[in-house]
Amino acid sequence: MFLKSELNPGLRCCELVYRMPFNERFTMRDSSINTLCMIIVLAGTLSGVPAMAQKNDGHIVWSQTSVNRYSLKMSNKHNNQWSAPEMIEESDNPIIVPTLSAKHGGDIYVAWTELNGDQGRIRYKIKRNGAWESSQELMTATSSDMAPAIIIDSFGVPWIVWSGSDETDDDIYFSRWIGNQWQPPERVNDNDEWPDILPSISVDIRNRITATWQGYNGERYVKYSCYWTGKNWSQENVVGEIPLESGSSDQDLPDFIPEGSQGSLRSGESKPIRKFVKPAPIRSKINGG
Question: Would you list the DSSP string of 34-91?
């Protein structure tokens, strides 16, 4: 169950605190409140279009704050060049863990969590024909919703997953965009007593949708996964352990992304999403660094 967001000045990040069984705490340090969390999606790699056909195109979205005002920005990559940052949204409330997906040469769907006190709500925004529509809240029946992930399948249908709390535990939910709206949310994981958090979603060249998340198994958090059968979600399976630390790299990131930024990069259709931390440059003590 998501408890609260705690700004940690020492780490320059926001800590997302979850309640675990036996009064333990699981903390995901999310730096997006201080210009620090983003996700990169290379156009085509998440929509069933072969990545090689458009390997130089892409999008990156991130959130940042300035004088108690929170904003969401995006940049596009074309011909190996990133565009100037574009303002997408501003709010008095913290904007964290943004995500996006794009249709080939078409619409862009952006989603994020907006915090109001200890509660999170999923908001989304769509860019059609070169213009942004007004942001909307994704309507759910849960009390708090966190960490959305979005994908567009081979037929151009957007899918979104997130972790929602019913004040007893956290579960993974999903929805699809049908017509002109998101369908009523449904649960992805088994309905058990343990928390399930931090989902991701992907599509392969056969248009098979796979959801992956972190779930508590009574002893520790492990990685679970299941896939969409065409009618419902398959039985969830444990697919691996949770790494203790993410690797650090600034590969493929535009220069205007601040040092210390955390996020995820997908560099090819057959490659998994790679988490990154943009490291600060090494400063020599001799030179006063």
Answer: GT-EEEEE-TTTTTTS-GGGGTT-EEEEEEEEETTEEEEEEEEEETTEEPPPEEEEEE
Element (H, E) at 24: none
- Averaged pLDDT, 55-70: 74
Half-sphere exposure of 171 (CA within 13 A, CB side): 19
Q: Maximum distance among all alpha carbons in the chain? A: 64
Mean pLDDT of 42-54: 30
pLDDT, mean of residues 79-106: 86
Q: What is the pLDDT of residues 256-281, one digit of tens each?
A: 766 655 455 544 443 444 555 556 55
Complete edge-to-edge strand list for the sheet that includes strand 196-203? 196-203, 209-216, 221-227, 237-241
Q: What share of the chain is helix, strand, coil (3-state, %, to 5)?
A: 5, 55, 45
Is residue 144 within 8 A of residue 119, CB to CB? The reply is yes
Buried b (16+ CB within 10 A) or exposed e, 249-263: ebeebbeebeebbbb
- Tell the CATH topology of 2-277: Neuraminidase (2.120.10)
